[in-house]
């Protein structure tokens, strides 16, 4: 019996899910990863594994984490690794505000109102689009939007993990795309300028160098995300029959969507509070000398303040809504709400602890940097040029992204190799940076090494207690493939038709 391509794809994803869910618990898996890193670091050091940094010429050698100094560092910095784990503070601070908004009833009422007002055909697109645009707020989309995606689909009577997957795809696989510039743009352009200086010390890559391409990818990724969700992921997951935490989702019946008069008043005044806060933050941002502007008028202080802003934008309207509806009658209840929100984070804290140790050990071992350099050397030596080389570069970037999460760290290593190499071939640094950004995003959603992956699993388990790595990866593989294909195709079209990547950003270098 011949199987259709869709059926074959479904069987492959089912097998990925089964194999993935046979893996140990995520916390246990990270402990295993830690053991492997320690062992490989010892073997690599014994073999003298090393690589030459392409920018500085420094010889980078694998570090043995099982010698005297390595063991000392493991024990003396264990607490600092956990306390300094980048996602930890962001998640906990954002959850303080989100906890009040959720437990006061604001989130439930807003979502029920949204579901009732927006046609169901547009909800998936709105969710993916919001995920892509959430990169304005750095990593806050992981904390806020992905759980809300699950809640939203549950409230519509659909499988919540499909909503979680759609939001996750937008937030992570579409991370580089945006209609506006984000904090990533000046960061990467600065590294590209340094790399271009190897060939031309006067060359400067401006922060808007990839704006036209990245903005175009927003609707492309949005439509792609909708297609994958509606045609592949949601049909595969089927009907949802579980029962999530009562605090996590709205009533799944259409009758339960109706808002009471008190809730409508609460939403009105909560909305007024949001508008007031946005006006206040705008007043602190627009003037050149405002608190959210730097010494030279740059917006970096605003970018660095986005998490506290998110906290306030949930916390204050949550209290206002609760005061109007009667859900909040005293400051004691507000404290209880924030405490309850923190109580739900116990499982995440355990995962964050072991994940933080793994990320630190992998960094100390220098294995990630050596892998990036060797991957770059391989790509340089395969002997192809032009568009095939760009596509190969995208694939190598995507592969390295499975092991090294930081976009800036990878570009700091790869930029000094590929920017001068492509400049010699007549391609601009802006083009190389754009190709890197395409490859650096779409594998985020299928690597367990993503710092936020434990949070995604915890969110999925609120609806499916058996959900594991395999469940999430199987749901995200179609998005990863689709986003990779359309992102790379857009880049090829840009090169083929010689379109500008951004204002003052050519494709070629004379």
What does this structure look like?
With 510 residues, the protein is mainly alpha-helical. The chain has one domain (11-496). Helices cover 68% and strands 1% of the residues. It contains 22 helices and two strands. It has a two-stranded antiparallel ribbon. A hairpin with a 6-residue loop joins strand 1 and strand 2. It is globular. It starts with a helix and ends in a 14-residue tail after the last helix. The relative contact order is 0.16.
- Principal-axes geometry comes out as globular
The termini sit apart by 58 Å
How large a portion of the residues is in β-strands, by DSSP E?
under 5%
Query: Order of strands in the sheet with the most strands?
Result: 1-2
Q: Output mean pLDDT.
A: 81
* Multimeric organization: single chain
Order of H and E elements: HHEEHHHHHHHHHHHHHHHHHHHH
Largest sheet: 2 strands, antiparallel
Number of strands: 2
Compute the gyration radius: what is it?
24 Å
């Amino acid at each position: 019996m011949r199987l259709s391509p869709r059926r074959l794809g479904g069987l492959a994803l089912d097998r990925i899910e089964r194999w993935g869910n046979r893996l140990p618990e995520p916390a246990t898996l990270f402990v295993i990863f830690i053991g492997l890193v320690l062992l490989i670091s010892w073997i690599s050091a014994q073999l003298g594994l090393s690589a030459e940094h392409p920018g500085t010429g420094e010889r980078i050698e694998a570090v043995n984490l099982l010698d005297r100094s390595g063991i000392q560092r493991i024990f003396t910095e264990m607490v600092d690794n956990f306390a300094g784990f980048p996602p930890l503070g962001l998640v906990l601070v954002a959850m303080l505000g989100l906890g009040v908004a959720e437990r006061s009833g604001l989130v439930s009422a807003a979502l029920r109102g949204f579901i009732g007002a927006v046609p169901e055909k547009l909800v998936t697109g709105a969710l993916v689009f919001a995920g892509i645009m959430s990169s304005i707020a750095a990593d806050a989309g992981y904390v806020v939007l992905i759980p809300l995606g699950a809640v939203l689909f549950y409230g519509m009577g659909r499988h919540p993990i499909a909503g979680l997957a759609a939001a996750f795809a937008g937030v992570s696989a579409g991370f580089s795309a945006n209609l506006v510039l984000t904090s990533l743009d000046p960061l990467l352009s600065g590294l590209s300028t340094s790399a271009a200086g190897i060939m031309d010390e006067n060359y400067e890559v401006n922060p808007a160098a990839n704006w036209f391409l990245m903005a175009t990818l927003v609707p492309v990724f949005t439509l792609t995300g909708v297609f994958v969700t509606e045609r592949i992921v949601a049909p595969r997951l089927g009907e949802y029959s579980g029962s999530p935490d009562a605090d996590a989702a709205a009533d799944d019946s259409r009758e339960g969507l109706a808002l009471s008069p008190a809730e409508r008043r609460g939403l009105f005044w909560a909305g007024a509070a949001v508008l007031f806060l946005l006006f206040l933050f705008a007043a602190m941002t627009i003037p050149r000398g405002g608190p959210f502007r730097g010494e030279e008028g740059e917006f970096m202080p605003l970018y660095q303040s986005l998490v506290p802003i998110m906290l306030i934008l949930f916390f204050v309207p949550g209290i206002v809504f609760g005061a109007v509806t009667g859900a909040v009658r005293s400051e004691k209840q507000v404290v209880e709400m924030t405490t309850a929100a923190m109580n739900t984070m116990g499982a995440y804290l355990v995962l964050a602890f072991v994940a933080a140790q793994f990320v630190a050990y992998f960094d100390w071992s220098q294995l990630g940097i050596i892998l990036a350099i060797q991957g770059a050397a391989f790509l340089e030596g395969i002997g192809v040029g032009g568009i095939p080389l760009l596509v190969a570069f995208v694939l190598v970037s995507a592969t390295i992204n499975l092991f090294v999460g930081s976009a800036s760290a990878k570009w700091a290593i790869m930029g000094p190799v590929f920017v001068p190499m492509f400049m010699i071939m007549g391609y601009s640094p802006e083009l190389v940076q754009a190709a890197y950004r395409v490859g650096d995003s779409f594998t985020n959603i299928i690597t367990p090494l993503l710092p936020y992956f434990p949070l995604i699993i915890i969110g999925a388990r609120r609806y499916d207690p058996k959900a594991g790595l395999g469940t999430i990866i199987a749901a995200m593989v179609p998005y990863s493939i689709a986003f990779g294909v359309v992102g790379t195709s857009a880049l090829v079209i840009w090169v083929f038709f010689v379109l500008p990547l951004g204002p003052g950003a050519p494709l070629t270098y004379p």
